[in-house]
Amino acid sequence: MTSLGRYLLISILIPAYTSWAQVPEVNVAAGTEPPKEVILKAIPVDEPMPNLGLESALEELPRSLPEEFQTVYTRCEVPEKVVAITFDDGPHPDFTPRLLDTLRDRNIKATFFMVGRNVKAFPQIVRRMVEEGHEVANHSWSHPLLTSLGTESVESQMRRTHDAIIAACGRVPVLYRPPYGQARLSQRKRIRDVFGYATILWDVDPQDWQSPRKVEKVHDRILSMSKAGSIILCHDIHETTVNAMPALLDEMKRQGYHFVTVSQLIQYEARNQPVAAATVHPEDAVVVPTTEMPLGGLAPAAETISLDPLPPGQP
Ligand code: NI
């Protein structure tokens, strides 16, 4: 090799070796890496229900009323898209089990306001509701207009259904919904005193009983009217309503809605807004036009109906 050749070889090798030797050593042995920086996010003390794990936190909510509860609820004031879907007038021997399948497949808990005579006729369906985590509630014995009844008749309507629910499933109901959403202030207070019930109305009414009954109508109305804290009125005695549920519930879940029972919704409100829930008693102010269908009759026209006080001269 010539001296020029040696020079060229060395001038290539030395920088190559130097750059190889300067590669910093990487220790890949396990456990020797410096600990990663851990960022802890503080949860404010006035935020009892953090968004993380909302679904499991909601499942923990009791199906009983908080110590302080309003006499009447049409909806609840809550910070997340949490709603209660309710089904009235059942149980129905065919449609209600189908509905329960739909709810079970989606892990959705609902509230059933049941007519006592149907509870007595189909106690096994009521048992299944409770076994699958739903809330059972009182909707009178035979669906009369309570405002047309005297004190004893109203108590009999409530008592027979109350006892039939307990006999069917062992669960003591804590809620009732007056048929057609109608009950005098004095009746609501009396029912609260005697049975410990809250009066549950609704803010979302798809009018699913009204002809022509259509799946799309039920679906679209509930979807467009629902918001955080809504109480949704449905009837599981109508096949179209039950048929509307799979697509509706899937879409609502996709839109971020969570479903709880009505007493859970009230608990959720009380935990997030303890002051508001404890101090607001709007029973004198509530006016809910109702179009709920009577069993075996025509619904009174919505515009003729108001909650208390009743117009003078009415029975
Ligand atoms: Ni009803």
From TrEMBL:
Where in the numbering of this chain does the NodB homology domain appear? 81-260
Query: Signal sequence span per UniProt?
Result: 1-21
A biological process term (GO) from this entry: carbohydrate metabolic process
State the protein's name: Peptidoglycan/xylan/chitin deacetylase (PgdA/CDA1 family)
Alphabetical list of PANTHER family matching this protein: CHITIN DEACETYLASE 1-RELATED, GLYCOSYL TRANSFERASE-RELATED
On whether Metal-binding is a keyword of this UniProt record, the answer is: yes
What PROSITE patterns does this protein's entry cite? Answer: NODB
